[in-house]
Amino acid sequence: MIKIKSQQFTSKNLEEALEKAQLEFGVEKNEISYKVIQESSKGFLFGIGSKPIIIDAFINENFLVNKIKEFLSEVLIHFDEDIKTNIKVFGKTIVIYLDGDGLGKLIGKHGRTLGALQHLIMIYINRMTDTKVDIKLDIGEYRKKRRRKIEEIAEQAALKVKKQKNEVELAPMFSFERKTVHEYIRKNHPEIKTKSVGLEPYRKVVLISQ
């Protein structure tokens, strides 16, 4: 679970404590989670010995999901196509799926528009939390298809390295593409070493014969 901002609240019951948290944070009710620090008790006669409830309330991942939806609505309004958005949270990773017709403009040449949009969302979201949140954007299952293509490129490069006993430098790739190459070579060609070189956005993978 992603915790964005936390604070303790004290009140006579849970409902009032959550209302205080919602007012303090300025968020919707479903955007708050909490942990009870101290249970309330009525005490004895005339309330002697009574104790208030104390909770540690924090803004949860629903807040970020809603912010992403707002951000995307501002971007997608410039496209004529009816694009559906599906967002899922896995630990500290938020995966955004976009689907619909005419997604080519959103993907861009070699996935560059997709990569740029993902980068913008990551910057936007990580300014709201102290916890590093990883954003993964997939448009029309482009990443799944692209992964297969990258694995084919990695395989061809590995065969070339084995044949020539030399280094092979691949074209610049996005981080998820480079990661795919590293994982594929490590799993299928452990005798070949890989390393990433250069600076973004021209960072690339080099395969080295050992």
UniProtKB/TrEMBL annotation:
InterPro entries documented for this protein: Jag_KH, Jag_N_dom_sf, KH_dom-like_a/b, KhpB, KhpB_N, R3H_dom, R3H_dom_sf, R3H_KhpB
Pfam families, alphabetized: Jag_N, KH_KhpA-B, R3H
Coiled-coil regions listed in the entry: 4-31
Keywords: Cell shape, Cell wall biogenesis/degradation, Chaperone, Coiled coil, Cytoplasm, RNA-binding
GO biological process per UniProt: cell wall organization; regulation of cell shape
Domain of life, source organism: Bacteria
Keyword Ligase: no
Residue ranges occupied by any R3H domain in the UniProt entry: 144-210
Single GO molecular function: RNA binding
NCBIfam families named among the record's database cross-references: Jag_EloR
Record protein name field: SpoIIIJ-associated protein
